[in-house]
Structures are given as structure tokens and as C-alpha cells.
Amino acid sequence: MKQVINLELNGERYEVAVAPHATLLEVMRRELGLVGAKKGCDTGGCGCCTVLVDDRAVYSCMTYAMTLEGKKITTIEGLARDGKLDPLQQAFIEAGAVQCGYCTCGMIMAAKAFLLNSRSPTEAQIRQAIAGNLCRCTGYRKIVEAIGLAAR
Amino acid sequence: MAAAPFKQYRSPESSQEVVELLTRYGEAAVLLAGGTFLHGLAARGLMSKMEALISLQKAGLDYVKPQGGSLTIGAMATFRELLDASPVKGRPELGAIADALEYPPPQILNAATVGGSTASAYPLFDLPVALIALGGAVVAQGPGGRREIKLEQFFLDYFRHALGKGEFLAEVIVPKLPDRSASAFLKLETNANDLALLNVGVRVTIDEEGLCRGAVVAFGGGIGGVPVRAATCETYLEGSRLSAKLLDESAQAVTHDVHPISDHRASARYRATAAKVLARRALIRALARLGLEFG
Questions:
Q1: CATH number at residue A13
Q2: Which of A77, A102, A121 finishes a domain?
Q3: What total of structural domains would you count in chain A?
Q4: Which positions in chain A touch B103 (Cβ < 8 Å)?
Q5: What's the start-to-end Cα distance of chain B, in Å?
Q6: Tens place of pLDDT for every residue, chain B, 295 residues?
Q7: Alpha carbons B23 and B168: distance in angstroms, whole number
Q8: Four-way CATH pick for B181-288: 3.40.50.300, 3.40.50.2300, 3.30.390.50, 3.30.43.10
Q9: For residues A80 and A87, what is the distance between their CA atoms, to the nearest angstrom?
Q10: Which of A71, A119, B103, B255 gets the most CB atoms within 10 Å of its CB?
Q11: Which CATH class is domain B64-174?
Q12: Please, are residues B112 and B104 in contact by the beta-carbon 8 Å criterion?
């Protein structure tokens, strides 16, 4: 049986009816039309569904929507401000850190959570921050460079 | 697409209310903690007959409290909250906890809970093995009140634990360990988001003469349905004066205690060989936390 809950997503409030087992990823993609977070493995192994809940990175594929009332959710769609890309998005472009693009949104959100609390990270710290995100194209080097670039 | 499970979502606001709901729904209810394990089961259709999803989110169980040298961890404390808790930081005897929580990626640290990873009774998880090394116990709360169950008696088989009808895992307790104790944990994995091929948690206590006055060596991962203690190895260590040679011999002895499985990820022979190496390295790591170098 669905219940109506309020979600705060990218600063907007949404009233949405969700089933007990519905994940945030399903609600975003099917109900709210937010398709930035991707459905990859759907079991918390690939990271391309990563979003922020109260500024912390989580896998939206295994976060139950019902548990999110009163929490602040940020997705890739919420990063740009007034038509201007977030420094991380810009850095991914400048460093050439995008190939097929499927991992990119999750990668940027994992990096976003990390940079909120880390001003001048080492390469090892950056690599640990994206340890929960798989990329099958880039070999990670350009992604690590982009995150380092955004941190400066 | 798995069949839709759960007709009801409930979010009780006290442990008492959790017990009432569990009693009412019986076998048709599943508890939700961080969701990181449950979702995997649901995605495989294993929750399709379940009626009620009972979230522990609002039950007031997200704490990490020091109590006279012991540590009481609420079931809903996340891995991140445990790792960042001041009673855990820099304490040699709790090193195994910090080690075990170095492995998960941030997304899991932020969501997975101490209670969920324990109550799942999944022998490939890391934290339960670290907690066994520390002599950990769970507090089961149910219709008859609260009772403590040592972790070694808590795990019965794959996905099976010692909780009775209407009971749930409310807390994990790490007892006060003797002075000059230290612990460590190590995991063998194939990538940063992998379940353990094998893992080991160790705890040693050394007296002022340099003799070992207590040792626990516990293995998880691909060794069967429950984590196991390496009794032969522990017997080698207890009462002995530690040396590099003794650590080698005791680590070799785990062959008598650990009988790994073969699966598509690793052969039993490989795991058995790795068990000896991991035991030795974990002991060296724990002893280094007491300023004793054997590496």
C-alpha cells in the first residue's frame, strides 16, 4: 500500500506516493523524472546511483524512500546554479574525465560529498572517496585529476 | 522485476513498539535498518511473501556510548558514526573495529548499520568478525525483556541467528577488555566493494612480563555458515612469551581450525593458505598497537 510522503530534493518539495519497498532511485526516475542518477547494478556495487542525503553520499538504489522524510536530498540535477555548472562538473569537462558518461553523475556526487569536508585532498584520499564507484572506460586517472582540479 | 513485497510500512518510535509490531506480524515482518543488505534480498525476490517492513529509524537506537570501559552501540548506529565515535578513536583494544571499517566505500559507511550487519547473520561480513575478536555480545529485546547473547552463540548458520519470536537486536556490546589489550582486523578482497574472500579479527592481551594472557583469533568470509574461532592457534599464543617464531607457529596452526569453502571466487586451498598469512599479519598489526614490533 502506497503512502504519501514529502521529499526535499534539490531545494524543492515533492509530495509523492511511494510503496513501502520503493527505493529513492526508483522514485526519482519513475515518479519525479529525475534520471541523472543511473540504475546500474541495483545492489550497491557500482555507484552510478550515488546522491547526497544530508550532504553524505549514499547509494540511492538501496535507500528506502520512506526513510527520507525530513532529509535534504541533492542529486546531479541540483548542482548547477543559475545556469552555471558546479566547479566539479566544469572540472570533469576540462580534465576530459567523461567517456561513455554512465558513471559520471554518481562519480561527481561521490566527489561532491567528499569535497564538502576536504579542502586539499591527496590523490590517495580522492581515490578512497570514489572507491564505491566503478568506471569501465577511463581507468580513473582523468576522474582523479578532475576532482583534484575542482578542489583547488 | 521482483514481485512487490510489503503491504505495510511501519516506523515505531520506541523499542517497546518494535517488539509489539514483531509480535503482531510474526514471521511476516522484516526489520529495516540501513537497508544495504535488505535491498539485495528484495531485489532477488526473497521478500515477496513479507507483509510488513518495520523501520528502526525512529526507535532511538542510533548511539555509541562508552559505559565504564565497555562500549554500547545502538543497532541503528551507522558504520560512519561508529568509526567517528570518540570512544573508538585511537584505542589499541578497539583497533579491530577501526580496521574493519576502513574497507567499505563511503556510500556503505554512511548507510550500513552495526545492528543490520550483525542481525543479517551473513558470515561474509566484516564487522561481526571484528566484534567476535573483542568478545562482543548483542542485546536482544523481546516480549520477555532484554537478554545478552554472546556473538559466538548468536550466529547459527547462513542467515540464521539466535533471536527468538518477537525479539530484535537492539544493541551490540563490546565489553571492557583487560589493560594492555590490542586488536586488529584484516580482509582479503578482490576489489574495494567486495565481500570477504576471507577475513580475520584478532585480540591479544599481554602482561607486564611480556606473556600473552589472552588471545582470540576469529575468521569469517568463505569458511562456512558462521564465523569460527581458531582454538588451536589461540592455545599456542596463550601463556606464551611472544616472538616472531611463536607468531609463525601459531599462524600455521590455524590449519587445524579453519576449513574454508571452495567457490567461484577462490578455492578452499587458496583460502586455507591465506588464512595462515592473514592470521600472522593481523597478530603483528595488533601487537604493534602495544608498541611490540614483530613485523
A1: 3.10.20.30
A2: A77
A3: 2
A4: none
A5: 51
A6: 445 689 999 999 999 999 999 999 999 999 999 999 998 888 888 888 899 999 999 999 999 999 888 999 999 999 999 999 988 888 999 999 999 999 999 999 999 999 999 999 999 999 999 999 999 999 999 999 999 999 999 999 999 999 999 999 999 999 999 999 999 999 999 887 889 999 999 999 999 888 999 999 999 999 999 999 999 999 999 999 999 999 999 999 999 999 999 999 999 999 999 999 999 999 999 999 999 999 7
A7: 11
A8: 3.30.390.50
A9: 9
A10: B103
A11: alpha beta
A12: yes
Q: What is the pTM of this model?
A: 0.96
Using an 8 Å CB-CB cutoff, list chain A residues near B39: 23, 43-44, 61-62, 64
B107/A114 CB distance under 8 A: no
First to last CA, chain A: 49
> Is residue A12 in a domain?
yes
Range of the domain at A114: 87-151
Going by the DSSP 8-state scheme, the letter that residue A60 receives in this structure is G
Instruction: Count CB-CB contacts under 10 A for residue A143.
Output: 29
Which of A58, A77, A96 is the last residue in one of the domains? A77
Whether A78 and A88 have beta carbons less than 8 Å apart is answered as no
In a domain, A82, yes or no: no
**Continuous H helices in chain A:** 24-26, 87-95, 104-116, 123-129, 141-151
CA B115 to chain centre: 9
B129-to-B145, B182, B190, B199, B220 alpha-carbon distances in Å: 27, 15, 19, 8, 6
Contact between chains at B105 and A20 (C-beta distance less than 8 A)? no
Q: Say if A141 falls within a structural domain.
A: yes
Among chain B residues, CA nearest to A1? B7
